Amino acid sequence: MRNHILASACLLACVVAVTPASADTFSFSNGNVTNQMAVATRPDSPGGFEIEAGDDFILPNPTRLNSATFIGLMPTGSNLNNVSEVVVEIYRVFPADSDVSRTSGSGLFSTPQVPARLNSPSDVAFASRDSATANQLTFTTSLVTQTFTAANSVQPGGIHPIPGQTTGGNGQVTGQEVSFSVVFTTPIDLPADHYFFVPQVQLDSGAFLWLSSVRPIVAPGTPFSPDLQAWTRDDISPNNLAPDWLRVGTDIVGGATPPTFNLAFTLEGSAVPEPSTWAMILLGFAGLGFAFRQSRRTVRFA
Q1: Distances (CA, A) of 231 to 56, 137, 156
Q2: What is the pLDDT of residue 80?
Q3: What is the pTM of this model?
Q4: What is the mean pLDDT of residues 239-245?
Q5: Separation between Cα atoms, residue 68 and residue 245, nearest integer Å
């Protein structure tokens, strides 16, 4: 009986040793903001069609996301309370969560609307949180710089399917640099995987433009590989791009040597055990309980 107790205790000790503690934290940053690019992103609303922009991150372990920040432009002179809704979506990398039957003969991950889908966000979101829905997301805004100018932009109406996808961008844009701090009232639990972070901001007037960050990522950012470039899409008839996506640099800006962009955001969270790990922990406790019960019965019988 002593051997059973020792075996169960050893199993439990091994599992606990490899299980991330609840205090283990996850932190990710794309680094400092740059003035290279500003990309529109907003949820669907009665006054405007949906626009999405996304940049990627990797979770090496199962993680619970608790909060995020992202930085962009609001129109000059805007009140920081000029925000009616904030949405955060999480996408996996294509072809996950996607209709691969739409691929055409021009390439394995090509479609009739875009040059390529390789390394793009998937067709549909894997998870989302919306400030317009109770107990999902809260946000605050803070002014970073009163006047900030981005050298190029992709603004509402500036996204087109092939063959007209390469516009060079919508040019220079100036506005207030604003930081959005988001708390996931209902945390987002994600398995280890490669994801895209897609924030959307609905302003009472004007458009929010998400600002670029350094690429490749350097300190104080969190380098990782492969670091995919930023993508965008819209959903407006008759030429709505969704469910496909365009690369902001390679497809929209274009040129002989197309630029590539990251977008400015951070994530904070905590490591969570795999379901199989919880099962092993419960099994270890169950084994200990059974062994002790058997031990007590043996003593009383003697």
Answers
A1: 9, 24, 15
A2: 95
A3: 0.84
A4: 89
A5: 23
Q: Kindly give, in sequence order, each residue whose CB lies less than 8 Å from that of residue 199, ignoring residues fewer than 6 positions away.
A: 41, 68, 70, 86, 87, 88, 89, 180, 182, 210, 265
Quick one: tokens of 165?
């996808």
More confident of the two residues 277 and 119: 119
> First-to-last CA distance in the chain?
14
Residue 10 banded pLDDT, cuts 50, 70, 90 = very low
Contact yes or no for 224/58 (Cβ under 8 A): yes
Q: Give the Cα separation of 168 and 158 in Å (integer).
A: 10
Backbone φ/ψ region at 62: left (φ over 0), alpha (ψ -120 to 50), beta: beta
Report the relative pairing of strands 63-74 and 83-92 from DSSP bridges.
unpaired
Q: Is the pLDDT of residue 20 over 80?
A: no
Beta bridge partners of 26: 269
User: How many other CB atoms are there within 10 angstroms of residue 205's CB atom?
Assistant: 11
CB-side neighbour CA atoms (13 Å) of 182: 35
DSSP, residue by residue, 134-176: TTT-EEEEEEEEEEEEES-EE-TT----TTS-----S--EEEE
Nearest 10 degrees: Cα torsion 8, 10, 16, 17: -170
Handedness of CA 101, 105, 111, 115 (dihedral sign): positive
Single-letter code of the amino acid located at 88: V
The Cα–Cα gap between 57 and 228 comes to 8
Q: In whole angstroms, what is the distance from residue 5 CA to residue 169 CA?
A: 68
Helix axes 2-18, 275-301, angle to 10 degrees: 160
Please determine, for residue 241, whether its predicted confidence score (pLDDT) is greater than 50. Answer: yes
